[in-house]
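Trying the structure run again after the queue cleared.
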Amino acid sequence: MDAHSQGNLFQNSQSEEADLEAQVGVSASSVRLKEWSYSRRETFEKCQRLYYYQYYGGSARCAKADPLKQKLRFLKGISNRYLRAGGIMHAAISCTLRARANGREWSSRFLLEFARKKCQEDLAFSRAYKEGMPLSDELSGPALLMEIYYGMSETERLCREVEEKLADALQAFQTAAEYLPFRMGVDDGQAKIESPISVKHKDITLRGKVDLAFRQNQRVNIVDWKMGKGDGGEDSLQLLFYALWAIQAFDCEPDEVDLYKAYLGDRTVSRYDFGPKAIDRAKARIAQDTERMRAVDEYGRNGLAIAFSPCGQERVCAGCVFQGVCPRE
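Done. Tokens:
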């Protein structure tokens, strides 16, 4: 985020901020936000309006005065092709790892058939979708793809391309020698696979989901699966959050934790080296994230979408499920 965005989250003058606080009826400094997650802070950094739609406008528990409440809740339930493919990939990998942990092994053919079937079900459901039809909130049910819902051009080709990337990634997971140590890490039946995790840090709970975690040879291994290729440009904060959790969950020291990103798109593994200073920096960043999100929490819970400016970045907007209602100012 650039200095302008950091310095002016709401794009409002001081008088406009005062008007907002008057509408809220309570100072925006009130502390009610109690949870942090990497996905939440990533959305916050990406686009303020998307953050509002995802965590307030599209929520059943708050922002009840938002005139678009029903539409926002519906749009929150649809997906874009990349997010859906990522969800299918993680589900397929977790299923095959759990099977292996129980003494069974999915074949590469079965794994690919599972993934391709899900993609085809999504396309069929999206093509036949009519307004008012219920959406499934489970992976087992078909997803409504935003590319088809919004009538985007070349949808079939784009979805086929992502399906092929998904198939390549799963083939790599199942057959590439680079990932054999990770697959073997579940053999004792003690590994955590697609497991929800939480860490209490001061006055906030840090939440997430770890793809794979296991102890082997006195080392704790954390693996994060990626469908794409490694380019070295990703944020390390997510991995450091996993390290914070592992230190507590496995009762170990930081130098006993190994963090990996497995880039299935090019069959590579990237190990992230860190030390105590990196852990301290991660805690500081999480504290900063929390304060910034708390500063707008009251506005969000009261449905004041105007307090959250759209980012207007084409790359972000193109994949946003809320693009049908966002003003994109």
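The chain has a mean pLDDT of 89. Worth checking whether this holds up in the mutant runs.
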